[in-house]
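hiii so my PI (J.) wants the whole complex modelled not just the main chain, which honestly fair. so below is everything: two entries, each one labled with what it is. i double checked the lines twice but i was tired so who knows lol
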Amino acid sequence: MAERLRFRDPDLAKRVTSRINQLTKGKETVKICHVCGTHEWTITHYGLRSLLPQNVEVIAGPGCPVCIVPASETDEAVQLALKGVVVTCFGDLLRVPGSRMSLLDAKAEGADVRVVYGVGDAVKMAREEATKEFVFFAVGFETTSPSTAVEILSKPPENMSFLISHRIIPPAMKLLVKMKELSLDGFIAPGHVSTIIGLKPYEIFPKKYRMPVVVAGFEPLDVLMGIYMILKQLSKDKPSLENEYARAVWPQGNPKAQRIMAEAFEIVDGRWRGLGNIGSSKFNLREEHNVYDAHLRYGVKIEYGVDTKLGCRCHLVVIGRIKPTECPMFMKECTPQRPVGACMVSAEGTCRIWATTKPD
Amino acid sequence: MCLAIPAKVVSVKENSACVDFGEGVLREVNVTLVNVKAGDYVLVHAGYAIQVLDEKEAQETIQLWNQILEVET
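here's the output for the full assembly
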């Protein structure tokens, strides 16, 4: 039966939410965690939390790849910018606070910092301006990492190098499961990360931790369906891994992208801003690509930075421990125009989404 | 951003493809990560096609994006 799902249909939304209400009536609170800024955007923009019963909570985990880059890595980019290297990066990285300054501050001091929409644009610029030194500050999870890998393997020009700050999501999910005080009951897995990594990396959650996982797309109905599927699993006490986003996520993911990432990167331990060290959670350039490693080319390596400014509670927002509205600075000292922490800077930061998205 | 948008492949030349996002919006994207031919649908993220979509499913998504654009303008 080829039933065409209508992804923003309010009637369909009503039917799903009424089922959700039926399933959870009189039951204990269920806490579902997503790990994707774009999921938080959908949830906030469509006011999905207001459609859910009081005893179903959806919290935002560390799904903002810009928010979790440690200040030390931002400081490295700033240092390179001040040294005269042209620093290229995605837009939200410009205003992320480093220990002392942001890339935008460096730009104001005369550094050449340029926003690009894709890593390919940075490589193109480097080819066109051969007399200048370029670096790409590579941030993002598994949705974005493959494109950086493509460029590294495509013989970038000699005046191009990379600062790799890519991280991977499943280890952060594991960290959250182990935080007993969070009392999570299930995960909505990130749809586009999953188009790359497939379903296998999530198998451990139902198998080892009895934690339901549903991979969901980004339309409001995708998210509501995802929540409903998790609640159904919980009501039957049958935690499993399900794929709501079957139109884009194949069980094996994108094997070609996985091979390309494995050729360009190795997995190492990495620090996440506000979360500390997470084992095997970060990409580094493989040794054979050392010539493109900005750390080695410029002798830049900063171990520690100021991750959290005084009074900032991004480290609690980023694991869903508190809501943005529970931070005393939210929309007072910390606003989108004058952000204190990374969560208020990035388009995928929970605080910025709450501050700037008006529910429909 | 995890934002990835569906588009239809118009033509392919080596690792680059011209894709149609609907409403006549054409762009060059890198298709190294996928195996595609003209007529296929792909998900595009930051200038790169990251996955192939089922045509039927993709048309649904494009229709919805168009619908939403109509409402928002």
